Amino acid sequence: MTTFVSFVGVDIASASFMACIGTTPRKVRVKPVQFENAEDGFVSFLGWLQEHHLKAASTVVCMEATGVYSEGLAYFLHASGYTVAVEPPLNIQRKFPVNASKTDELDCQYIAEYACRYRDKLSLWKPRADILEQVKGPVDHAPVLFRPVDGTQECLACHPAQESLFRTCQTGSPDHD
Questions:
Q1: pTM, rounded to two decimals
Q2: 3-class SS at 141?
Q3: What is the distance between the alpha carbons of residues 38 and 130, in angstroms, rounded to a whole number?
Q4: Taking Cα atoms as reference points, which of 47, 45, 23 lies closest to residue 34?
Q5: Distance between CA 174 and CA 4 in Å, rounded?
Q6: pLDDT at position 95
Q7: Which residues pair with 27 in a beta bridge?
Q8: Cβ(33)–Cβ(46) under 8 Å?
Q9: Which runs of consecutive H residues, i.e. helices, occur in 52-159?
């Protein structure tokens, strides 16, 4: 079993994510910083981790399961050698007091503390099997059309970070337009 010494809490949203570094419960070593939830932001985040001397072998990056918002970062970190934990939001929320002044800065600190306190129970994230990705990719990345009950038609586009990762998987190199 890996012995983690650094715990990075990530509060992720559609356009950005907030991250902080903890080492023990209730001890934030590095205050929260915001990054763009896109390929450039992932690269900046990786640089930030390295700037703070967080070795991949002894660091776990923990985030809430937010579907497409967290997948791009999880794939990127895993490919960079970091251990990623993706936890159900309710598991984390139940461990901390309800706070009327809920902020992204506070949430990423709670996530880092959760990772530290429950390190032996974390749901460590692994990419899906290649065959599932091949089947899943075209379905997930194509616009989805549907007709709601009221008869209107809407198009749902996939998240930009996921789109970039999909192009990378298809071509073998990132598409930098």
A1: 0.72
A2: helix
A3: 23
A4: 45
A5: 31
A6: 86
A7: 24
A8: no
A9: 68-79, 89-93, 104-117, 130-141
The candidate with the shortest Cα–Cα distance to 19, out of 62, 27, 11, is 11
Question: Which residues does the chain have with pLDDT short of 50?
Answer: 131, 139, 142, 144-158, 166, 168-170, 177
**How many CB atoms are located within 10 Å of the residue 34 CB?**
16
What angle is formed at CA 30 by the lines to CA 115 and CA 72, rounded to 5 degrees?
60
| Domain annotation for the chain: domains and CATH numbers | 6-121 (3.30.420.10), 130-171 (no CATH)
Please give the single-letter amino acid code of residue 32: P
Taking the C-alpha atoms of residue 158 and residue 177, their distance in angstroms, rounded to an integer, is: 18
Burial of 107 (0-12, 13-18, 19+ CB in 10 A): buried
Question: What pLDDT, on the 0 to 100 scale, is given for residue 151?
Answer: 43
Which pLDDT score, from 0 to 100, does residue 129 have?
72
The Cα 163–Cα 82 span in angstroms is: 22
| Nearest Cα to Cα of residue 92 among 127, 122, 124, 120 | 122
The amino acid sitting at 4 is F
Residue 28's pLDDT is 73
Residue 124 carries which DSSP code? Answer: B
Q: Give me the pLDDT at residue 93, please.
A: 85
CA pair distance 41, 47, nearest whole angstrom? 10
